[in-house]
Amino acid sequence: MIIEMLTRCQELVCNIFLCQFFKVGVIFFLVFIGEIMKTSLIFNKILYVFSFLFLCSCFNVNAASYKLIDLGLLSYDASVVTGINNRGQVTGVYVKDSKHYVFFWDKTLKCTRVYNADGAKINNNSNIFGSYLAEKCYSSASSSYCFHAGEQRQIFSWHPIQSDKYQSLGSPLTIDFRDFALTIWDTNDIDQVLVMDTDVIDLQKARKTRGQGIQTWVYHNGVFNLLKSEKITGALRINNNSKILAWHYVMDGWFCSKVETVIYDYNTKETKVLDFEDSAYGMDINDKNQVVGVFFDQGQVKGFFGDPQGSDFIVLDNIQAKSVNNRGQILGTFSSGANKDKYVIWDQGKETKLSEISLVDNEGHLWQSLDTLVDINDQGQIIGEGIYKGKSLSFLLEPVE
């Protein structure tokens, strides 16, 4: 805590000093102009009052717009953060002694865990869905046995506030391969779970399936429902209106001629392809059905934001959009210029850089860097990953009023 206070004081002093240095120069310039112009006494008084107010305004300095929060994971080997809800509850995976554990964090419960699990997502009801390796056993007339190669990846549900035990929801797969990916990509507040048999959507996957055939399910009320749309290569998000954000690889033989962003209505089965001349990658969809992503425009990568059913999309010329909340705040990175690849929040046309956050967290730990920002919720809280003592670990950023 002492380190944090000293760091913030240092930032404040430096900001004030630089601000004062600049503003004192402006004041001298104004006074110099007043003397040259030999203006009236009333004008000079107004000039001096303005200069005084201009100088004092410098002390209204916000040293940091976000506070770095320790999630209680610093003693582990590594961690990745995979989800945050609008309550500020966080989930992800940490590694200890080569074993994977799904964790849950909030301000009161701190960190609890599920062993041997991956890929967790959390909704606003504090329900967590993930995948895990379940031991597969076989029986014969003479004996029953279990063996390592027969482990099967299944999905689970877990409500950490109600119980420390998780519930197996089974698997849509019929093949018992432990390395066969079964990944939770998203969930919503009515416990619809977006599941795929891959942890990545890329050209290699599309080539194997000619742009189709990567299996995607929506798990709901005990049933795995396979999506049977030729316009879906892989799906990324499902919102509270059961709208699914997906990609479609348009294949020309073994080559991909274009990647399309697709909105699929799980209730009506209607499909809408977003109208872009070149490839467009939708990255997130909020509960207002607003979509953000990136598209190619004459060789340049630009961001987009808008409602597919409404007017034209807003083009974000220098921002690659990554995530959007229900307030329309977009988390992304700058595409070019001096701030290239640095993170930014876009809010109704206003850009706020996130490059000057204190590396000292709320417990006084000094981080080496904050490298990756993953998602933003409706409170403006941001989850991400950075380096602490040489290890890649997860963190939370809290907005500072």
Keyword list:
single chain; 401 residues; mainly beta; Methylamine Dehydrogenase, Chain H; 2 domains; four-stranded antiparallel β-sheet; 3 helices; 44% strand; disordered N terminus
Describe the overall structure.
It is built from three helices and 30 strands. By secondary structure, it is mainly beta. Helix 1 packs antiparallel against helix 2. It has two domains: 58 residues; 334 residues, Methylamine Dehydrogenase, Chain H (7 Propeller). A four-stranded antiparallel β-sheet has the order 1-30-29-28, with no helix packed on it. The protein has a four-stranded antiparallel β-sheet with strand order 2-3-4-5, with no helix packed on it. It has a four-stranded antiparallel β-sheet with strand order 6-7-10-11, with no helix packed on it.
Give a short overview.
This protein has 401 residues and is mainly β. The chain is built from three helices and 30 strands.
Global geometry: globular
What is the CATH topology classification name of the largest domain? Methylamine Dehydrogenase, Chain H
Structural class: mainly beta
Q: What portion of residues is helical?
A: 10-25%
Mean pLDDT, rounded to whole units? 81
Helical run tally = 3
Name the CATH homologous superfamily of the largest domain. Answer: Peptidase/esterase 'gauge' domain
Counting DSSP E segments of at least 2 residues, the number of strands comes to 30
Distance between the termini: 19 Å
Order of neighbouring strands in the sheet with most strands = 1-30-29-28
Could you say how many structural domains there are in total?
2
